[in-house]
Amino acid sequence: MSVYLDCNATTPIEPAVLELVMKFMAEEFGNSGSRTHEYGNRAKVAVQNARDQVAKAISADREEVIFTSGATESNNLAILGLAAFGENSGRRHIISTEIEHKAVLEPLTFLRQRGFEVTLLPPEPGGYIDPDRLMRALRPDTLLVSVMQVNNETGIIQPLNEICNRLIDHPAYLHVDAAQGFGKYNGPLRNPRIDLVSVTAHKIYGPKGVGALISRRRGFDRPPLAPLMFGGGQERGLRPGTLPVHLIAGLGLAAELADKEAAGRQKQCEEYRFRLLKGLAALEPEFNGDQEWTLPNTVNLSIPGLDSEAFMLATKGLIAVSNGSACTSQSYQPSHVLKAMGLELERVKSALRFSWCHFTPPVDWLEVVATVQNVR
């Protein structure tokens, strides 16, 4: 079986998390909204415990955690949920970046059609956003700034603390899509200037189908979000529906373990990165993005003279890698992220994303290189 090197798409589940999810599916199956018996009470306690675990990871309060189906829904709630306030207050300008995930770019396109003005900042050649460029784009009527924490394709870390510092005296809400950074690099997410944080469980060794939007208060005021769905009033009226207690419990434990074990996991990923780069050196790869700004579990590279599809076909059965975001891979188009970074089309077409984790087993890189050289 091939070695899985696509952890930015999704991760294997932690054994302890899997055990907890199964417990709440098979044994503790109560509805957390049921107040008349112990099954419901135990489910409610589990949800509140998970809320605390997610909140603690980024120094938030439990009341600021809104459970969702994942980062895509969280992004939509954060962005579209501010629309009515923006229209009523006359603040219809939004700033984001050209390298965001489609779960941010597509809601922004919808708001543009609704009359909002959207400024998309290009990245520097290294793949990160210049905070000074953001400041120059800022206007009195800017409602929202939405910048991802870590790019899903390149692993490039965005300068969130610098962006927060630039926004100290501006009322714009700051939203961060932290799908790739939460649980791996929590430090910047603890900055109290970040108003809205989108996270998901399946990128941090938890179950698919659950995530959260952290909606931080400014003093006593919550971001003025309006719900996208109605019925039931759960999650402070922002996300109605019966809570999936088993998934929420899994997210909570995954968040807690990721925070506690962050240093050890990072060291393992750094060591794995060293072996991977040493193993692929004979192919003379070109790195896409400034490697000084990259999380230790990701590398995006192009192999001169070899299309990415040819690489993946040749190495099938040895390693499993990707050539872009999993959310757009069904109809492959050249990466909008790499194009925004100014890379030539041929280099974009040969780009490959390798992403791993503390579970990833060793790879026989000599065999991989020999296989690739035979088709190059």
Task: Summarize the model shown.
The chain is an alpha/beta fold and 376 residues long. It has helices at residues 15-26, 38-57, 71-80, 83-89, 102-113, 131-137, 160-166, 245-260, 262-280, 308-314, 336-340, 345-349, 365-375, and strands at 3-4, 65-68, 93-97, 117-121, 142-146, 173-177, 196-200, 211-215, 286-287, 298-302, 319-320, 351-355. The chain has 2 domains: 3-11 and 262-375, Alpha-Beta Complex (Aspartate Aminotransferase, domain 1); 15-260, Aspartate Aminotransferase, domain 2 (3-Layer(aba) Sandwich).
Characterize the biggest β-sheet: 7 strands, mixed
What is the residue-mean pLDDT, rounded to a whole number? Answer: 95
C-alpha Rg (nearest Å): 21 Å
Domains (count): 2
Number of DSSP-assigned strands: 12
Per DSSP, the total helix count is 13
Low-confidence stretches: none
SSE succession: EHHEHHEHEHEHEEEHHEEHEHHEH
| Strand-pairing-aware structural class | alpha/beta
What does this structure look like?
The structure is a single chain. The chain is α/β, with parallel strands linked by helices and 376 residues long. The protein contains 13 helices and twelve strands. It folds into two domains: 3-11 and 262-375, Aspartate Aminotransferase, domain 1 (Alpha-Beta Complex); 15-260, 3-Layer(aba) Sandwich (Aspartate Aminotransferase, domain 2), CATH 3.40.640. Helices cover 37% and strands 13% of the residues. It is globular and about 65 Å long. The mean pLDDT is 95.
